Amino acid sequence: MKTHYINKVIGSVAVGVCLLATAGQQAKAGEMYQGWNYSIDSFSDGSGGSNYEIKGFAVTETADSVYVALTGGTPLTGTYASGADDDNIGWGDMFFNFSGKDFASAEAEGNLLGVRFASTNDSGVDQVGLFSNVATKSVTGENNGYGSIRRYYDSGYNKADTMGTDIATADEAYSYLYGDAVADNPTANNTQTRNVINSGNFVGEINLLTDAQLAAQGLDFGNFGANGPQTFGFQLDKSMLGGVLPGGINSFMAHVLLECANDGVALAGNIDIPVEQQDVPEPAGLLSLGFAGLAFLKSRKGRQA
User: Fold this and answer.
1) Fewer beta carbons within 10 Å, N or C terminal of the chain?
2) Which stretch is the leader sequence (predicted)?
3) H helices of 3-137, where?
């Protein structure tokens, strides 16, 4: 995969190793502000106007919870659109990739987590909540949208910060979503949109949060001039993630597209999963694991940006 994405993951692993010595702060990609990790999207790449403009994506964590926030012009329940099969276009599902690989590879290997947070969308799963072993599909056909990311960019929406701070260019988007081979020659056929969960194993419920509830946790998109008319999010318990991720620092790339794929946003960061006392290796062992992770990730550096 491209150096841009791998460097974010390597940075996360490196700081995980430093934590052993300092017990200090976690490293985050994106833009850090008052404990939240932000990815600020282009304000002019929402095809169809302000109702389809995503402005930002943010994540923070406490000892036992992960908080996720989105802001933009699309309400949680979607917006009226006569071109959609159900007269409504809303949010797709959110995907968390902890594999260190591109999105397509992670899905093929059964390593994707997904969150259905919008109960009115056209997801392939019925419940709102966290899912593991996720397979994806496109619902752009039902929502008068872009069947491929290449068509979206060819329609004039190839802007700086195309998927936010952490996937800032079309080339980076192709590389992360489909792999470097596709990024070398993206076409409408090999960049098919995948924006909802098709199937997966239900892990547990999430708690939906309002703008006010997120602000009480310290969220402030306004610091970046990115407050949209619609801000909402969710909280999930780390105990659920502990069942599918190892204890310690876990680096991820997360992203979400609208059902029509008229806009999307991504965020790179870390989540610290509590380690049970009896499962904690000796410090020397932890350091070995950390440096082994660095060596593995460095060996996977792809073509230069």
Assistant:
1) C
2) 1-29
3) 3-22, 103-108
Measured distance CA(14)–CA(17) in Å, rounded: 5
Q: How far apart are CA 221 and CA 229, in angstroms?
A: 11
Which is nearest to 184 in space by CA: 192, 174, 194?
174
Q: Give the residue among 284, 262, 301, 280 at the shortest CA–CA distance from 46.
A: 262
Residue in this structure with the two tokens 């946790």, named with its chain if needed:
217
| Banded pLDDT at 275 (limits 50, 70, 90) | confident
- Which residue spans within 139-288 are E strands per DSSP? 196-204, 207-210, 230-237, 248-258, 264-273
**pLDDT tens digits, residue range 177-193?**
999 999 999 999 999 99
Instruction: Tell me whether strands 264-273 and 65-72 are parallel, antiparallel or unpaired.
Output: unpaired
Over its C-alpha atoms, the chain yields an Rg (Å, rounded) of 18
Look up tokens 């509830």; give the residue: 213
Q: pLDDT for 28-57, tens place per residue?
A: 457 999 999 999 999 999 999 999 999 999
CB contact at 8 A, 56 and 41: yes
| H helices present in the chain, as ranges | 3-22, 103-108, 149-152, 170-178, 180-184, 211-216, 238-241, 283-299
186 phi and psi angles, rounded to 5 deg: -75, 135
List the beta bridge partners of residue 130.
115, 204
Q: Which two tokens stand for residue 111?
A: 């390593």
How is residue 126 written in tokens? Answer: 């019925």
What pTM was estimated for this model as a whole? 0.84
Count CA atoms closer than 13 A to 200's CA, side-chain side.
34
